[in-house]
Specification:
With about 375 residues, the chain is of the alpha/beta class. About 55% of the residues lie in helices and about 10% in strands.
C-alpha cells in the first residue's frame, strides 16, 4: 500500500500538495503574467506548475523553459506532432504526484485567485472536484457576443443531459480535483476535444461529489482565441465517443461521418452532370467520385485531423495520396460486396459489408500515408 503524504501542512510536505496543469498553444505573452499571478495566490502552499505545450510556433515552450531555469517548480511538457486541449490536460495531470490537481487556461480568462479556496474545500469537505463556474450566482461570462453565448448555452444543455448531474457549467475548463479521481478513470477518458471536465464526469464510474464556485470570466488580453470551427465538431465527437464506447477511435467516427456526407456530394454531382449537363453515366460517375473524394479530403483535413492539418504543398501531396487510397478502397468495397452477394444473395448485408471494408481501408491507409505524423528530430 502506497503511503500518501501527510496533508495537515501545506508547506512541510516534500512533494507538491497541488499541481496546476496549464495547456498552451501560442500563449508566449501570457505565460510570465500567469506564472506571476499563480506565485502570488499560491504563496504558503507547496505547488508546481506543469505547462503542456503543443509545440507552439510562437516560442511558448522556450519562454516556459526560461522561467523554469529560475524556478524549478515550473515544468514543461512539449508535445510534438499532436494537439488537443483535453489530451494535453490528461498528460499534464498524469505527470504529477501531487494529491490535488488543478486545470486552468493560459489565456488569463480564469480567476486564479479561486485556487486556494478550491484546495481548502477539497481538503476539508467530502468533495471529489471543485469547479470554477460562470453560471452559478455571482458568476459571469464577461463580454461574450450573442452567438458565442448562445452556442455555450446549447452545449451546456447537451452536456448536462450526458452526465446526468446538476452541474451548471459542465463546459468549464477551470477546476481542481483529487488525484485519485483521475487515477480511477484515466484509461477510459476519450481525450477528445476541449472539454476535459465533461469527459471526467461522463467517464467516472460513480457520481462525482462536486462544488461550483462562481467567478467572472475575463476578456483575453494577449494572443488569439483557440475557438474555431473544429471546436464544436470535436465536442460532438466526444459525445459520440462516450455513447459508442472506447473500442471505436474518435478519428474513425469523424472519418466515417464525413464519408457519409460524401455520398450526398457524390449523388448531387452525378445528378448535375448526368441529368443536367447530359454527360454519359461513366463520365458523371467519375466526376462525382473525384469531387466527393476531394470534398472528403478537405473536410477530414479541417476537422478529423485538425491537430495534423496539412498546409501549402503538403495539401497537394495529401490529396493525391487520399484519392489513391480511396480509389483502392472503392475497389475493395465493390469486390467484398460482390463476393458476399454471390455467396449469400443478401444484397443489404453485402452492401454494408463492402462499405465497412472500404471505410476501414480508407481510414487506415490515409492515417499512415496522408496525415503522417512528423518525425522527431
Amino acid at each position: 500500500m502506497i503511503q500518501l503524504p501527510d496533508l495537515t501542512s501545506l508547506t512541510d510536505c516534500q512533494t507538491p500538495i497541488v499541481a496546476v496543469v496549464i495547456p498552451t498553444f501560442n500563449e508566449v505573452e501570457n505565460v510570465p503574467v500567469l506564472v506571476d499571478r499563480l506565485q502570488s495566490v499560491l504563496r504558503g502552499i507547496n505547488w508546481e506548475l506543469i505547462f503542456v505545450d503543443d509545440d507552439s510556433p510562437d516560442g511558448t515552450a522556450a519562454r516556459v523553459r526560461a522561467i523554469a531555469c529560475q524556478d524549478p517548480r515550473v515544468r514543461l511538457i512539449q508535445r510534438i506532432g499532436r494537439r488537443g486541449l483535453s489530451s494535453a490536460c490528461i498528460e499534464g495531470m498524469l505527470a504529477t504526484s501531487a494529491p490535488y490537481i488543478a486545470v486552468i487556461d493560459a489565456d488569463l480568462q480564469h480567476d486564479e485567485s479561486l485556487l486556494p479556496t478550491m484546495l481548502e474545500k477539497l481538503r476539508k469537505e467530502p468533495l471529489d472536484i471543485v469547479i470554477g463556474s460562470r453560471y452559478v450566482a455571482g458568476g459571469e461570462v464577461g463580454d461574450w457576443d450573442a452567438q458565442r453565448a448562445s452556442m455555450s448555452r446549447v452545449a451546456t444543455r447537451i452536456g448536462q443531459h450526458l452526465i446526468k448531474a446538476d452541474l451548471k457549467d459542465p463546459m468549464s475548463g477551470f477546476f481542481m480535483l483529487r488525484a485519485e479521481v483521475l487515477q480511477e478513470c484515466m484509461r477510459e477518458l476519450s481525450g477528445v476535444g476541449y472539454k476535459i471536465l465533461l469527459d471526467l464526469f461522463a467517464t467516472y464510474p460513480r457520481p462525482l461529489r462536486f462544488l461550483e464556485l462562481p467567478y467572472q470570466f475575463r476578456a483575453r488580453q494577449s494572443g488569439e482565441s483557440k475557438l474555431d470551427e473544429a471546436v464544436l465538431w470535436e465536442y460532438l465527437l466526444m459525445l459520440i465517443q462516450k455513447w459508442v464506447g472506447p473500442m471505436i477511435p474518435a478519428r474513425f467516427i469523424a472519418f466515417s461521418l464525413i464519408g457519409g456526407s460524401g455520398v450526398f456530394v457524390h449523388m448531387l454531382v452525378l445528378w448535375l452532370s448526368f441529368k443536367g449537363l447530359g454527360t454519359s453515366f461513366l463520365v458523371g460517375q467519375s466526376a462525382a467520385a473525384l469531387v466527393a473524394m476531394t470534398t472528403n479530403f478537405f473536410l477530414n483535413n479541417l476537422f478529423t485531423y485538425s491537430d495534423m492539418r496539412l498546409r501549402g504543398w503538403d495539401m497537394l501531396r495529401g490529396w493525391l495520396s487520399f484519392v489513391a487510397a480511396c480509389s483502392v478502397g472503392a475497389l475493395a468495397n465493390v469486390g467484398i460486396a460482390s463476393w458476399i452477394f454471390q455467396t449469400h444473395s443478401l444484397w443489404v448485408l453485402s452492401a454494408l459489408a463492402g462499405i465497412l471494408v472500404g471505410a476501414v481501408w480508407n481510414y487506415a491507409v490515409t492515417a499512415v500515408y496522408t496525415w503522417k505524423r512528423p518525425k522527431a528530430a
